[in-house]
Amino acid sequence: MRKITPFVLVAMLVGSAIFFAISCKGSTVAFNNDGQVASLNVEVAGTPSARATGLMERKSLGKDSGMLFDFGGNTNVAFYMKNTSIPLSIAFIDSSGKVLGIRDMKPFDLTPIEPPGTYRYAIEVNQGWFAEHGIKPGVTATIDT
């Protein structure tokens, strides 16, 4: 039994590290605005649990960073800012990568932020990032997940 225990412990540690790496998978999103490209490093919220938590309880968000919500198919789910202290902007994006709409969100505001229609992806960034980079509805995003 003593010979097996270290092996089991190592296997559990390696398995935990792999699970953590997969659940916190990072990705890149590039917006092409008339030849000008703006890129974001995003954390992918691809599971129901990760999408429900989002950026809650975070104190800050990196300059060119955000969170990508991948619903895996079309949805019309609204967002809100429960337990979120960072002022954010959100872009709703369809499955082809077209930005459908952008909304600003206030910290701790429970008012639903309704999408402009059916979308597949939503990206939350520091408030003003989209405006600063000229990203508007109709711009195309390339999402590397």
CATH topology: Jelly Rolls
Q: What's the total number of strands?
A: 7
Structural class: alpha+beta
CATH superfamily: Protein of unknown function DUF192
Number of domains: 1
Q: Give, in order, the helices and strands.
A: HEEHEEEEHE
Radius of gyration: 18 Å
Number of helices: 3
Outline the biggest β-sheet. Answer: 7 strands, mixed
Summed over residues and divided by their number, the pLDDT gives a mean of 86
- Distance between termini? 42 Å
CATH class: Mainly Beta
Architecture, CATH level 2? Answer: Sandwich
From the spread of the alpha carbons, the general shape counts as: globular
Could you name the ranges where pLDDT drops below 50 across 5 or more consecutive residues?
Answer: 4-24
Work out the strand percent.
35-45%
Oligomer: single chain
Q: Can you put this structure into words, describing what you see?
A:
This protein has 145 residues and is of the alpha+beta class. It is built from three helices and seven strands, in the order H-E-E-H-E-E-E-E-H-E. A hairpin with a 5-residue loop joins strand 4 (88-93) and strand 5. It is globular, with a radius of gyration of 18 Å.
